[in-house]
């Protein structure tokens, strides 16, 4: 019998289990951000400010599409975690088998639609003409890689849903090193421009997908499927879509607000665009712990709900919130003292256009980072509470938090940026996080009470 790496999160100290699951996951997310950082650093230093601004201007549309994919795949893994927690292995395999068909369908539709409409999307976002070609060349390649994004996130999601958060990290370390080599080779040696950075990312992610697949075949017998498990069953398809679609839409709705905001930033000029791009890159890196906490809560909540361990759900939530507060304070200190230096990593000071504005760009990027970091505690609540709600099986409820984020960013972009300029941009994310929390915190207690009543009925029977 093949060895397995499954890990039961329904037994033992919640804090210890959360840390043990979260830390490898965090390392993996840091390496994922490292993909993007290397792309941006190489683009900024070897191609110039226009290329950097062009790649940066695609960040929100990238998040809209790939965030939908990542959210869906995370949703598909939740029923797997729940069935693993309840030890219903036959049902678990049915969900895994039907995920294959759902993913193929969505990957085909999304890839075709985004590639065909790529230029139109950039025009709708009012991408400046001087960076339009660079933006198109980069994001078109990323869209071509949507099937690979599906494959990696599904496979790694299944592995994590069974409690193994370490193995995907090892694969990401390997593929990130490959990404670095390919970035340099495609941009510096082959002179492929920003398209080279896109291909480096896609090829590296394909390689990590292959490693995940090989690992599942060799080590996860619980995920080995028979012909009957792959039979298309619309009950399971419906359940997967009921969980996956709201999670994907949640990312996309949030991204729509980001796109509206990015459109407003584009109207401020290339200096502000480069500042926000560099600030966002550093901010994404600093926010990885919050993302890791959220993903941990989804798996932890899913397994414990499946096992009927409701008290452990609340205990784990509070333990994770404590970790979020500690990191929020730490991140603020980093942003205050080192934000400008970190942002400078993405700038090519040898470029005359960049050098002329280097001080302004560094100062703007650091200011952007500090304002955002002041509100990281609300961000911690957004990630931890929302993903716990999703792990409990209430993805539709968590979806509404994205609507609040969309509203906040939309109001700031349309009403405040034209009046207050860059300063309004700095406060857009904090406003979104606060409004989302106003909805999410009472929503958690409502979902918690609903699950408690449902479990009471189950065990009474």
Describe the overall structure:
- This protein is mostly helical and 461 residues long.
- The protein has one domain (14-460).
- The chain contains 18 helices and no strands.
- It is globular, with a radius of gyration of 22 Å.
- The protein starts with 13 loop residues before the first helix and ends with a helix.
Given the helix and strand composition, which structural class is it? mainly alpha
DSSP helical segment count: 18
Shape: globular
Written as H for each helix and E for each strand, in order along the chain, the element string is: HHHHHHHHHHHHHHHHHH
Low-confidence spans: none
Distance between the termini: 37 Å
Number of strands: 0
What can be said about the biggest beta sheet?
A: none
Mean pLDDT, all residues: 86
Count of all domains: 1
Q: How much helical structure, as a percent, in the residues?
A: over 70%
Round the Cα radius of gyration to an integer and report it: 22 Å
Strand content: under 5%
Describe the structure concisely for a colleague.
With 461 residues, the chain is mainly α. The protein has helices at residues 14-46, 49-57, 59-85, 89-124, 129-144, 146-161, 167-189, 194-219, 234-266, 270-286, 288-306, 310-344, 352-356, 358-373, 376-391, 395-420, 422-426, 428-460.
């Amino acid at each position: 019998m093949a060895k397995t790496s499954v890990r039961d999160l329904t037994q033992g100290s919640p804090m210890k289990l959360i840390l043990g699951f979260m830390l490898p996951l965090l390392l993996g997310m840091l390496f994922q951000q490292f993909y993007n950082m290397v792309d941006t650093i190489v683009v900024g230093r070897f191609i110039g400010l226009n290329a950097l601004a062009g790649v940066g201007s695609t960040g929100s549309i990238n998040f809209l599409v790939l965030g939908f994919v990542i959210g869906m795949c995370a949703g598909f893994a939740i029923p797997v975690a729940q069935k693993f927690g309840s030890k219903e292995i036959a049902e678990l395999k049915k969900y895994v088998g039907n995920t294959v068909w759902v993913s193929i369908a969505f990957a085909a539709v999304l890839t075709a639609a985004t590639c065909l409409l790529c230029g139109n999307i950039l025009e709708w976002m009012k991408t400046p003409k001087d960076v339009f070609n660079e933006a198109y060349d980069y994001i078109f390649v990323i869209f071509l890689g949507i099937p690979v994004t599906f494959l990696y996130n599904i496979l790694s999601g299944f592995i994590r849903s069974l409690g193994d958060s370490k193995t995907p990290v090892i694969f990401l370390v390997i593929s990130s090193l490959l990404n670095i080599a390919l970035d340099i080779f495609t941009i510096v040696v082959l002179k492929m421009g920003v398209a080279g950075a896109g291909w480096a990312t896609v090829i590296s992610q394909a390689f990590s997908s292959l490693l995940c697949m090989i690992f599942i075949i060799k080590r996860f017998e619980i995920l080995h499927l028979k012909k009957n498990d792959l039979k298309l069953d619309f009950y399971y398809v419906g359940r997967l879509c009921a969980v996956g679609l709201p999670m994907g839409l949640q990312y996309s709705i949030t991204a729509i607000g980001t796109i509206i905001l990015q459109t407003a930033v584009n109207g401020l000029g290339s200096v502000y665009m480069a500042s926000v791009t560099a600030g966002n890159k550093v901010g994404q890196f600093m926010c990885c712990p919050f993302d890791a906490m959220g993903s941990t809560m989804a798996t932890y909540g899913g397994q414990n709900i499946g096992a009927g361990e409701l008290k452990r759900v609340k205990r784990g939530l509070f333990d994770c919130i404590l970790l979020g507060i500690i990191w929020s304070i730490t991140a603020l200190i980093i942003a205050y003292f080192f934000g400008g230096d970190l942002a400078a990593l993405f700038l090519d000071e040898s470029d005359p256009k960049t050098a002329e504005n280097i001080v302004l760009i560094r100062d703007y990027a650091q200011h952007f980072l500090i304002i955002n970091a002041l509100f990281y505690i609300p961000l911690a609540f957004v990630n931890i509470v929302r993903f716990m709600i999703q792990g409990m099986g209430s993805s539709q409820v968590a979806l509404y938090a994205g609507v609040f984020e969309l509203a906040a960013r939309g109001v700031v972009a349309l009403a405040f940026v034209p009046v207050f300029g860059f300063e309004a941009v700095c406060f857009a994310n904090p406003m979104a996080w606060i409004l989302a929390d106003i909805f999410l915190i009472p929503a958690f207690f409502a979902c918690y009470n609903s699950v408690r009543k449902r479990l009471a009925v189950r065990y009474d029977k």
